[in-house]
């Protein structure tokens, strides 16, 4: 009925995909909660946005208005609004059809404590004569004021201020702050009409000009003071640069100029300018720079050199562009959403990581691998599965945000958002696969992952963002920080937020593809970093997985295996050495010697009759924490043909499970070799898995999948399809009593221990595997279920090799064609149950219970039966004796008992043949005694 052809790549991938989809169906509540998380975050942001909008809708944040009727309250039609009626907060919302004009200013350093203050400009040029003439034209000799047009006359003078410019020029800080405005000239006059007595005392006082002007509806009295402007010559630009770098406290420097090779035929100049105290505000764009006035001064000076002192290039004023009324609005999603959205996207990381580690911790991946699921189908479906979940999650995230009207999503180009999120979720999955190799416990990984999620968001929000906004922080260090995927995610979301805020404030769109070429936009570098990391991390994750895979992990240079070949002669030499080292011990055990000879013959003349051949298999566990190492399996030689069930008996800790673990690929042998269907377990486990079934000692099941779904999945891995698969699953469920009462469609997590064992046996047998390992399959079964299981195993051993470990002697006799007693890591004897009982149990056990007074009489009767009798038990009148079979006839024992009954009272007596349990105990005792003596 079963298809013997191994399943193809697509068939195994299809089986895993179906299983994953079923698993997701079982976890639909968890998936719904996960999907609703971004919706909840978006709703919170919408509610916050509405709350902020309601607060900003109040009059204190709108353009100021007054009633024309001179009343306190009036209707909107009776109000007049404008900048002149607004305070500093309200003015931001007002319409400004005619922005004010401001005279251009120089940025001055801090003034000196004496008057008049002195400000310096430095000059150099290739032509000293030319440079000296031009520099002499920089500052006027006196101030010219036209009081009929104050603002126009200010533009004719050289004005400067120590105030810090703002991000706009609607209100020039120089005319609104408490700091004075200075007009620079070659020499301030020494007479001062306002304060002649101070001058007469010898303290120079500056001239002052005071004027009144109207701005934004307000009348302001402004004072302008005089300051000396000095031009100083320097020999070269490097001298100027060094002087600027070191600072010059005696003569504060306003600007510096290098005329280079300028002359009457050409004007070529380098300008050093004084920047603001804060080139970038903490939470805003770059402030304005007062450099146009410096350029105008030097251009005017050159023009006067060419055309005479009467020529002037007038720089009258600077002004903002007019703007319509813009209600004050704060885009919450763009400001707070970056942190929240970072957490939303990172929420996928713990989900992917814990899912991978759950399969690793529960050994479900190796269980799938042992039933034929290779690394190729596993990683293709697993990666695609997580990618599909992530894409759906991110689509819901963007759709929810867009439907709720968050500008963060609606203003930015959706194609850029798709590319950004798609690259990042691929990187996130790759990082999860990489980190899964370093975790073995789901709880530890979950706690670590969530600490990473929230820590990443907080660090990025309070550290990375600060560095991004600080223009003085080296860009290279920011790129280094973005190499951490969480920071790269935050930077990308930050750029989306900035673009959305800018677009919302200006009434334009957000980020577009052409914006990525802007050097101030970090999205391009983030996309490049994430894409490169995705490829690199995915490659490293696959490499580490191949090296560290449980049991079948490859060499660190496995990709070079085509160039590295192990000499066959060295393998044979090691085999010979192993044989010679155990000659003396095996001479005492003919059955073990015979088994070894059979193995050697099979290695010389391979046949397909023997499915399992072990050649000197050995497993040594290194000691840890100061404990000595343990030799779990000692050079095991074993050959198991098809159609045979070989039983392994032994006390706890004898090495049975270690042997099974090596054969199924959970651990690697320390030395020796084993062949399954002619394939070496050291190098070809992937091929062995396709024809192998395993019932492990502990049930490796998905708690949320039903028994039927388990069998369907593993049946598909064994290439069962259609009606053949359905029939095989139904028969397996019926044979192991899992069909009736709805048990087949109940989740495995709700099964009893016995039901789980029966399901594990059914999984090991489905698909007609040629080799089956059963590690204590009947553990926890009631007598009826045990008998049912035995019948299934009897039928299953036809044309397949089964290795079964058990502690039940009854089970061993009922199922096993041959038995091997395993003690201290090595086989002590091999044979069928009858041979072992005959070889190690050629005795009868005679038991008699009498009063304590007649114990000596019982001993005399036994001595008369045979002088070779051996007392093995004595307690309160009950005695047991071992009687060699060759010395005693059963009829003689009955006659002796009848004689004893006539002489004294016999409470009970019995004569028993040797059981398999007796053989087991005897062999174990002899082995332990031998190890103790040696």
UniProtKB/TrEMBL annotation:
<dbReference type="GO" id="GO:0016887">
    <property type="term" value="F:ATP hydrolysis activity"/>
</dbReference>
<dbReference type="GO" id="GO:0006869">
    <property type="term" value="P:lipid transport"/>
</dbReference>
<feature type="domain" description="ABC transporter">
    <location>
        <begin position="612"/>
        <end position="849"/>
    </location>
</feature>
<dbReference type="InterPro" id="IPR026082">
    <property type="entry name" value="ABCA"/>
</dbReference>
<keyword id="KW-0067">ATP-binding</keyword>
<dbReference type="Pfam" id="PF00005">
    <property type="entry name" value="ABC_tran"/>
</dbReference>
<dbReference type="InterPro" id="IPR003593">
    <property type="entry name" value="AAA+_ATPase"/>
</dbReference>
<dbReference type="InterPro" id="IPR027417">
    <property type="entry name" value="P-loop_NTPase"/>
</dbReference>
<keyword id="KW-0547">Nucleotide-binding</keyword>
<dbReference type="GO" id="GO:0005524">
    <property type="term" value="F:ATP binding"/>
</dbReference>
<feature type="transmembrane region" description="Helical">
    <location>
        <begin position="447"/>
        <end position="468"/>
    </location>
</feature>
<comment type="similarity">
    <text>Belongs to the ABC transporter superfamily. ABCA family. CPR flippase (TC 3.A.1.211) subfamily.</text>
</comment>
<dbReference type="Pfam" id="PF12698">
    <property type="entry name" value="ABC2_membrane_3"/>
</dbReference>
<dbReference type="GO" id="GO:0016020">
    <property type="term" value="C:membrane"/>
</dbReference>
<keyword id="KW-0812">Transmembrane</keyword>
<dbReference type="Pfam" id="PF24526">
    <property type="entry name" value="ABCA12_C"/>
</dbReference>
<dbReference type="InterPro" id="IPR003439">
    <property type="entry name" value="ABC_transporter-like_ATP-bd"/>
</dbReference>
<dbReference type="InterPro" id="IPR017871">
    <property type="entry name" value="ABC_transporter-like_CS"/>
</dbReference>
<feature type="transmembrane region" description="Helical">
    <location>
        <begin position="332"/>
        <end position="358"/>
    </location>
</feature>
<feature type="transmembrane region" description="Helical">
    <location>
        <begin position="34"/>
        <end position="52"/>
    </location>
</feature>
<dbReference type="GO" id="GO:0140359">
    <property type="term" value="F:ABC-type transporter activity"/>
</dbReference>
<feature type="transmembrane region" description="Helical">
    <location>
        <begin position="418"/>
        <end position="440"/>
    </location>
</feature>
<keyword id="KW-0378">Hydrolase</keyword>
<dbReference type="GO" id="GO:0042626">
    <property type="term" value="F:ATPase-coupled transmembrane transporter activity"/>
</dbReference>
<feature type="transmembrane region" description="Helical">
    <location>
        <begin position="526"/>
        <end position="544"/>
    </location>
</feature>
<feature type="transmembrane region" description="Helical">
    <location>
        <begin position="378"/>
        <end position="406"/>
    </location>
</feature>
<dbReference type="InterPro" id="IPR013525">
    <property type="entry name" value="ABC2_TM"/>
</dbReference>
<keyword id="KW-0472">Membrane</keyword>
<keyword id="KW-1133">Transmembrane helix</keyword>
<dbReference type="GO" id="GO:0005319">
    <property type="term" value="F:lipid transporter activity"/>
</dbReference>
<protein>
    <submittedName>
        <fullName>ABC transporter A family protein</fullName>
        <ecNumber>3.6.3.25</ecNumber>
    </submittedName>
</protein>
């Amino acid at each position: 009925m079963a298809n013997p052809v191994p399943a193809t790549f697509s068939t195994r991938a299809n089986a895993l995909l179906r299983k994953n989809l079923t698993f997701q169906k079982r976890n639909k509540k968890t998936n719904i909660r996960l999907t609703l998380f971004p919706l909840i975050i978006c709703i919170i942001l919408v509610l916050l946005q509405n709350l902020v909008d309601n607060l900003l809708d109040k009059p204190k944040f709108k353009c100021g208005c007054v009633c024309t009727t001179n009343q306190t309250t009036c209707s909107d039609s009776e109000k007049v609004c404008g900048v002149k009626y607004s305070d500093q907060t309200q003015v931001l919302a007002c319409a400004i059809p005619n922005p004010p004009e401001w005279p251009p200013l120089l940025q001055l350093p801090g003034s000196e404590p004496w008057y008049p203050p002195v400000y310096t400009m430095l000059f150099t040029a290739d032509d000293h004569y030319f440079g000296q003439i031009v520099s002499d034209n920089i500052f006027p000799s006196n101030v010219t004021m036209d009081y009929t047009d104050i603002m126009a006359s200010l533009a004719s003078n050289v004005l400067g201020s120590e105030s810090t410019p703002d991000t706009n020029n609607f209100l020039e800080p120089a005319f609104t702050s408490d700091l004075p405005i200075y007009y620079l000239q070659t020499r301030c006059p020494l007479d001062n009409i306002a304060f002649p007595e101070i001058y007469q005392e010898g303290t120079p006082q500056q001239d002052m000009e005071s004027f009144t002007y109207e701005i934004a509806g307000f009348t302001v009295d402004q004072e302008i003071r005089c300051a000396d402007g000095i031009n100083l010559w320097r020999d070269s630009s490097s001298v100027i640069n060094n002087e600027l770098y070191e600072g010059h406290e005696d003569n504060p420097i306003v600007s510096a100029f290098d005329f280079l090779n300028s002359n009457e035929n050409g004007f070529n100049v380098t300008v050093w300018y004084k920047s603001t105290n804060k080139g970038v505000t903490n939470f805003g764009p770059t402030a304005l720079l007062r450099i146009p006035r410096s350029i105008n001064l030097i251009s005017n000076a050159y023009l006067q050199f060419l055309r005479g002192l009467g020529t002037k290039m007038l720089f009258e004023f600077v002004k903002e562009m007019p703007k319509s009324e813009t209600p004050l609005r704060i885009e919450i999603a763009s400001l707070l959403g970056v942190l929240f959205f970072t957490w939303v996207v990172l929420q996928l990381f713990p989900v992917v990581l814990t899912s991978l580690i759950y399969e690793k911790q529960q050994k479900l991946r190796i269980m799938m691998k042992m039933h034929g699921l290779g690394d190729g189908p596993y990683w293709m479906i697993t990666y695609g599965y997580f990618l599909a979940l992530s894409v759906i999650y991110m689509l819901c995230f963007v759709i929810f945000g867009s439907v709720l009207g968050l500008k963060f999503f609606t203003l930015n180009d959706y194609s850029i958002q798709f590319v950004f999120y798609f690259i990042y979720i691929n990187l996130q999955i790759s990082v999860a696969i990489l980190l899964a190799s370093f975790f073995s416990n789901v709880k530890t990984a979950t706690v670590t992952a969530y600490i990473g999620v929230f820590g990443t968001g907080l660090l990025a929000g309070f550290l990375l963002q600060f560095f991004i906004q600080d223009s003085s922080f080296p860009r290279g260090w920011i790129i280094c920080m973005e190499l951490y995927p969480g920071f790269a995610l935050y930077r990308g979301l930050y750029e989306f937020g900035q673009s959305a805020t800018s677009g919302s404030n200006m009434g334009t769109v957000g980020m577009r593809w052409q914006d990525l070429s802007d050097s101030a936009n970090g999205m391009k570098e983030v996309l490049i970093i994430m894409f490169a990391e995705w490829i690199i991390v995915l490659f490293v994750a696959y490499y580490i997985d191949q090296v560290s895979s449980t049991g079948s992990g490859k060499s660190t240079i496995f990709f070079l295996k085509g160039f590295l070949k192990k000499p066959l002669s060295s393998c044979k030499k090691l085999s010979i050495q192993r044989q010679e080292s155990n000659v003396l011990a095996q001479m005492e055990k003919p059955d073990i010697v015979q088994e070894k000879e059979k193995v050697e013959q099979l290695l010389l003349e391979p046949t397909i009759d023997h499915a399992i051949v072990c050649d000197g298999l050995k497993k040594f566990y290194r000691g840890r924490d100061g404990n000595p190492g343990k030799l779990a399996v000692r050079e095991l030689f074993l050959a198991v043909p098809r159609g045979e069930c070989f039983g392994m008996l032994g006390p706890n800790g004898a090495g049975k499970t270690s042997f099974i673990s090596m054969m199924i690929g959970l651990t690697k042998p320390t030395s020796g070799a084993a062949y399954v269907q002619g394939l070496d377990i050291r190098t070809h486990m992937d091929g062995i898995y396709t024809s192998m079934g395993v019932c492990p000692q502990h049930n490796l099941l998905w708690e949320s999948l039903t028994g039927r779904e388990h069998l369907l999945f593993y049946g598909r891995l064994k290439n069962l399809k259609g009606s053949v698969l359905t029939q095989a699953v139904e028969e397996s469920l019926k044979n192991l009593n899992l069909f009736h009462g709805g048990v087949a469609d109940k989740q495995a997590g709700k099964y009893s221990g016995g039901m789980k064992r029966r399901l594990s046996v059914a999984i090991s047998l489905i698909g007609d595997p040629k080799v089956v390992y059963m590690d204590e399959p009947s553990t926890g079964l009631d007598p009826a279920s045990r008998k049912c299981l035995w019948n299934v195993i009897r039928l299953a051993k036809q044309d397949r090799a089964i290795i079964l470990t058990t502690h039940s002697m009854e089970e061993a006799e009922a199922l096993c064609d041959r038995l091997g007693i395993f003690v201290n890591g090595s086989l002590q004897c091999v044979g069928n149950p009858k041979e072992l009982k005959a070889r190690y149990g050629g005795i009868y056990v005679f038991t008699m219970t009498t009063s304590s007074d007649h114990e000596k009489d019982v001993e005399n009767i036994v001595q008369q039966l045979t002088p070779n009798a051996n007392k093995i038990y004595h307690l309160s009148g009950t005695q047991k004796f071992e009687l060699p079979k060759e010395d005693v006839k059963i009829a003689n024992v009955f006659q002796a008992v009848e004689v004893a009954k006539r002489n004294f009272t016999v409470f009970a007596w019995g004569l028993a043949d040797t059981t398999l349990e007796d053989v087991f105990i005897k062999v174990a005792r002899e082995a332990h005694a031998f190890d103790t003596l040696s």
